[in-house]
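Researcher: Structure for this, please.
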Amino acid sequence: MFDDKTILITGGTGSFGRRYVATLLARYRPRKIIVYSRDELKQFEMQQEFDAPCLRYFIGDVRDRDRLTQAMKGVDYVIHAAALKQVPAAEYNPMECIKTNIHGAENVIHAALANEVERVIALSTDKAASPINLYGATKLASDKLFVAGNNIAGGHRTVFSVVRYGNVVGSRGSVVPHFRKLIDSGATELPITDTRMTRFWISLQQGVDFVLKNFERMHGGEIFVPRIPSIRITDLAAAMAPHLPTRVIGIRPGEKLHEVMCPADDSHLTLEFGDHFVIQPSIRFFQRDTDYRYNRLGEAGTYVPQGFEYNSGSNTCFLGIEEIREFNRVALEGGVA
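Model: Predicted structure, token format:
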């Protein structure tokens, strides 16, 4: 699907973007891959690792609609990965988070429509479902913008969908590298926020593969959610440092005990497929009547029971301590756990 196509990735120097580029280069023969991001140092460092002739590096911010519109000329597919993602930072810098995560999403939509981009997938987060923090609230607003983008497209060919998944093992700023840094520096204990805390758990490669597959599945307007395991934060600490005690430090600003990816209030819109869920749009698009029970690959889904909630605390699949240790090892080596 990506052979001889031009793909643009916003926030392309991040953990997801780097793995996405590596996967595209390994599996396909794209005409051009555009890495769009605002950090010149990260782009320089990425160029030392990826120097394929099809790669282009564009300095730009998603807050800048004119630059985005210029960058998307001739682009077939867009992956919108750029965001301000740190929960405490968003609580203390709300205006900056809104400018990037909401206004930036709006800019991506307008730039894609202006250039007749064929398909756009925006990356979301479990924190966008029933949000209690500003980061989650801005990503919920972003999700709504991308879903509604299919309605404002009018006669344009562009379609927009969203991919929502949980904590990525080893991504920058996440708990695994934080614990690893403490362990390597000789810490005598590991700080955990609450002994009851659970999280969805996914490897970076699984996230990339899920996005790739959904470019083939998408009609436009769906929120795709993978079926993935959960972990207990206490088990993660035991898997990484069985010799160290833990110390409870309390929940950080805007943090949840458990994460939700399919809220109960959306159960009437939620379809279950073999390895994922689809949340249908709550609005009806003009001049389009899509049956989301069947995707473009011919896979069939069924409606979940009313009141169903996909919650990391009540998930039917939990990883044990040894499974977490093995999952993390494979994930950090770049494989599919």
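Researcher: Any notable elements?
Model: The longest strand covers residues 32-37. Residues 102 and 141 are 6 Å apart (CA to CA).
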